[in-house]
Amino acid sequence: MIWLALGIAVWGVGWALNVWLAARTESAASSLAVPLIFGLTLIVLWECLVRGLGISPVLLPPPTAIAARVASSTGVLWEDFVQTVIKGALSGYVIGCLAAFGVALLADRFVFLRRGLLPVGNFVAALPIIGLAPIMVMWFGFDWQSKAAIVVVMVFFPMLVNTVAGLLAADTMQRDLMRTYAAGYWTTLVKLRLPAAMPFIFNGLKIGTTLALIGAIVAEFFGSPIRGMGFRISTSVGQLALDLVWAEILVAAVAGSAFYGAVALIERAVTFWHPSQRGRA
User: Fold this and answer.
1) Is the pLDDT of residue 26 over 70?
2) For residues 199 and 17, what is the distance between their CA atoms, to the nearest angstrom?
3) From start to end of the chain, where are the E strands?
4) Angle between helices 2-23 and 28-53 (to 10 degrees)
5) pLDDT above 80: residue 121
């Protein structure tokens, strides 16, 4: 009962504090404090409910047990992080996004490519990863190369569709103005159409950050060497080591958030002129 009462008290204090902060003038400090307090409140409530209700750690380990497992398994977690995030997700993300950007330029230049590729992109985007993963493992082997190939497939078409849409974003008056200056295709592309397409391009890049990590982790369930987040999660579930499973999930969540945040910061620096970025600190 003490744990339950403590959990309810912490939740009430956190709720009241967030309501007070949210009612104040919005600032960078309050925008950061509200989600931070809310997240800490959820963690404390999780701890109190698990201990107060006597939930088995096999079903749901408390946050303190997960933190202890992270501290005691840093070597394993780092090895899995390098295998899955750096080798699989990041390499596939870079290759897929660069390839999609190059193909988008070709599709913009040649209309038949745009009309032919975009429907194919919608079809491929609907393919389940659990169907692609075994095929890629057969083609590229059990190491990180097959995971990178799956990531390439997953990020390619979202990036392609967003880039093509962005290249068409410049309106007719702007293009006519460039023609009055006798600007050719490449001059118009570099000085008008690419800057106008940047919000769309970064939208594709941000979508790709989440798809890349999900694709790399899920692909490891279908064949991988004895390391990697997906491999560790699947084997740890069989061993009932749920604290290690949650530790891997925590690392994946932090890595995914940092990956997305890095792309968002680059977007803010590049597209500072766009209305969506105005007023942000």
Assistant:
1) no
2) 35
3) none
4) 170
5) no
Distance set, CA 46 to CA 49, 132, 150, 173 (Å): 5, 36, 35, 57
DSSP 192-218: IIHHHHHHHHHHHHHHHHHHHHHHHHH
110 φ/ψ angles, rounded to the nearest 5 degrees: -120, 115
Query: In percent, how much of the chain has pLDDT > 90?
Result: 7
Tell me which residue of 41, 43, 59, 61 sits closest to 51, measured CA to CA.
61
User: Per residue in 146-159, pLDDT tens?
Assistant: 888 889 988 988 89
Amino acid at residue number 96: G
Task: Dump pLDDT digits (tens) for 150-183.
Answer: 899 889 888 988 888 888 877 666 666 667 766 6
* DSSP state, residue 95: H
Structure tokens, 107 = 């599709």
| Distance in angstroms (rounded) separating the CA atoms of residues 105 and 99 | 10
**In the structure encoding, which two tokens stand for residue 140, read together?**
């590229």
pLDDT digits (tens, 9 = 90+) for 194-237: 888 888 889 999 999 988 988 888 888 877 777 888 888 888 88
Top CATH class of 69-277 equals mainly alpha
User: How many CA atoms, within 13 angstroms, populate the side-chain half-sphere of residue 222?
Assistant: 20
